[in-house]
Amino acid sequence: MLVYNDHQKQPSSSHLPRDDIEQRIVALDLEGRTIRNNTVGPNQWLGENARDLASYVADLRPVDHAFLDVLPNLHVITDDYVHESVEKAFNWNQVAAKLKDWEGDWFIVAFRSVRKSTANDSLLYDADARAQEEAIHSGGLLKYWFGDLNQHRECLAMCIWINRDYALKATHKPLHLEAAKLAGQMYDTYTLERYRLIKKAGESVFEITALPFSTPHPSFS
What we know:
The chain has 221 residues and is an alpha+beta fold. It has one domain: Alpha-Beta Plaits. The chain has nine helices and seven strands; from the N terminus they run E-H-E-H-H-H-H-E-H-E-E-H-H-H-E-E. Strands 1-2-4-5-3-6-7 form a seven-stranded antiparallel beta sheet, with helices on both faces. Strand 4 and strand 5 form a beta hairpin. It is globular.
């Protein structure tokens, strides 16, 4: 986890490589926020839950292993990522270029919210952490990215899944449903976005396609 530190003056973003933009955001924030940029892979199990680990590994395609190798390089490229589209907020094509001739497709869920000033942050963080752990062991989760509140209490979170079926399965898990029930108490507004992420062989870019809600989300209906 990267923790914001307001005690060190950092250079302007115009003088930093794009790879350093996320660290600059972390260093300059004045609200004590954090950015979680966790790539989920077999090493997340650290020896426990061997059955879940075996199931997770069995479900990974060769292209998923390749994607996991380069996903740690994914980061935001603007300090106003909350207001940018998912396509423009991250260095997608820099990551795609590292996949070289691989071809594959994945599923993205992004959650944008405005947290109430009266929200119980500790309760929310605890519920989120437990739901994340549940999702990891449920299978199919490759990446969890979470940027905490800006000065307007706006937030963006994003998960990358092997496919939609895994994401849908996770929404029915008890800890996810428990966390989702807090939405009405904790947020002034929130929206859920879904995308298809496609990498074609021989290309060094991702294609990101927004998907409509074809079925009601069980947590926010």
